[in-house]
Amino acid sequence: MDFLITIAEGFIGMFEEGGETFTGLVTGIIPMLVVLITAVNAVIKFIGEEKVNRFAQKCTKYFILRYTVFPFIAVFFLTNPMCYTFGRFLPEKQKPAFYDSAVSFVHPVTGLFPHANPAELFVYMGVATGIKNLGLSLGPLALRFLLVGVVVMLIRGIVTEMITARMLKNKENSVA
């Protein structure tokens, strides 16, 4: 009998935890995202959408800038998860690659710029604790994280852009 009670309590407990998580989202990140989206849209309107689009076009003209500078700016200024909205300035065929490069950078940026993704700080701090216990400086670690992150986001952006182009080409050939 106790076994059935334990199962029933565990089953209900799972839904209680889900409800608490949902409440946390509704009272935490969702309002923040709504305010952040509103603020970013207001800044874009204030600066002028044409100027912002021209800046974005300059930053994304060449693939090396499109998958290094542009995602870096997005992650640094808008932080995770708002940074992905910078994809709106790109043509549809480049959006998946931009997302892939930006999402791969939200962790490596944490060592030097923890504001960009505070949720990932625990991962960096775990590694940093080990480095500190060895008596080593954290500066080189943070810089290496950042540099490797830039290289990884460039590689992922290029590869994803190539895969997307191939998939779009295959889709066009299958329709024709």
What percent of residues are in strands?
Answer: under 5%
What gap, in angstroms, lies between the N and C termini? 65 Å
Number of strands: 0
What is the overall shape?
globular
Radius of gyration computed on alpha carbons: 21 Å
- Report the biggest beta sheet as strand number plus sense, adding barrel if it closes: none
Helix content: over 70%
Please report the number of helical segments: 8
Given as residue ranges, the uncertain stretches (5+ residues, pLDDT < 50) are none
Note the topology:
Layout: H1 2-27, H2 29-47, H3 49-60, H4 63-66, H5 69-78, H6 95-103, H7 121-133, H8 138-175
Quickly describe the structure.
The chain crosses the membrane at residues 22-44, 64-87, 141-159. This protein has helices spanning 2-27, 29-47, 49-60, 63-66, 69-78, 95-103, 121-133, 138-175.
Name the features.
membrane; 74% helix; mainly alpha; 176 residues; transmembrane; 8 helices; globular
Task: Write up what this structure looks like.
This protein has 176 residues and is an all-alpha fold. Helix content is 74%, strand content 0%. The protein contains 8 helices and no strands. The protein has helices spanning 2-27, 29-47, 49-60, 63-66, 69-78, 95-103, 121-133, 138-175. Helix 2 packs across helix 3 and helix 6 (95-103) packs antiparallel against helix 8. The longest helix has 38 residues, at 138-175. It starts with a helix and ends with a helix.
